[in-house]
Amino acid sequence: MAWLSSWESFVRVVEDGSMAAAARRLDLTRAQVSKQVGELERAFGVRLFERAARRLSLTPSGEVFYQHALRTLEAIASTEVAVKNLGDTPRGVLRVSASVSFGRLYVAPLLPQLLARHAELDCELVLTDQLVDLVEDNIDLALRLTDAPPEDAVARKLAFMKRVVCAAPAYLAARGTPQSPQALAQHQCFSYLAGEGSKVWRLLDRHGDEHSVPVRGRFQFNNVDCVLDAVLAGHGLAVLPTYLCGPALARGELVTVLDAFEPRTRFGRYLYACYAPSRVRVPKVRVFLDALAAQFSPVPPWERP
Description:
This protein is an alpha+beta fold. The protein is built from ten helices and 14 strands. The chain has helices at about 1-15, 20-25, 30-45, 60-85, 100-105, 110-115, 170-175, 225-230, 240-250, 285-295; strands spanning about 50, 55-60, 90-100, 120-125, 140-145, 155-160, 165, 190, 200-205, 210-215, 235-240, 255, 260-265, 270-275. The strands form four sheets. A five-stranded mixed beta sheet has the order 4-3-5-14-6. Strands 8-11-7-12 form a four-stranded mixed beta sheet. Strand 9 (about 200-205) and strand 10 (about 210-215) form a beta hairpin. Helix 1 (about 1-15) packs across helix 3, helix 1 crosses helix 4 (about 60-85) and helix 2 (about 20-25) packs across helix 3 (about 30-45). The longest helix is centred in the N-terminal third of the chain and has 25 residues, at about 60-85. The radius of gyration is 24 Å and the shape is globular. The mean pLDDT is about 90.
């Protein structure tokens, strides 16, 4: 299928906005991509792009071809997955995505156990706090902490992700324990740096009413492990997931405050396993889902005594 690489190059040019960007993505030279697009135009007898000094734009013919090429490439990718995974034996490379801290603590340890049971299976764990594209990034299954899993994916709920407001006993002894959400304004508070709204804490009371509280801290992080370290060192309060701070709470190194309130964050309340519909019956995905279910149900490990 010599034509396939030309179709893929065309789609990448459209999505990346230039032949140079597409070439970098495909590990080709710009000249190779330009040649492939030119061959497509000659084969169809139409121009696919309007070429200006600084940008490319699709012609009407290019728009039509792009839609058909995109669907064709997606169908081919799904077909390859199905063919490579015929039968019931998990085989091939399983690519999994998870957030950095959660994946390191609870997903990475699962992989050696999984591979010990399935000799023809290999695994790649992609740890990132950025949202991955299941198709674009060739991810078989992504673990996401969210209230709204993607509509174009199959989503299986795995666990409730409890969060608490906590601090070190030494900090509370020195600065006092906040008795209400509004009292947080008098404290050093660490917020995971995640764009607009990250410095406003949302706390739900037992009646379901939300309290929005602006908070501040003199230094901040975009890494939740650094937030945990700062709180353990007695520098302030933070909203932390119990999967991360649970051991420190059990040892008494941290204590919770404002227990009558439930913190709400943009990360949502649940952990989902998300995968493309084409992966539903793929054996390697099925056995990994079974391993996740055994790990997190009925009670996730960080909530067990």
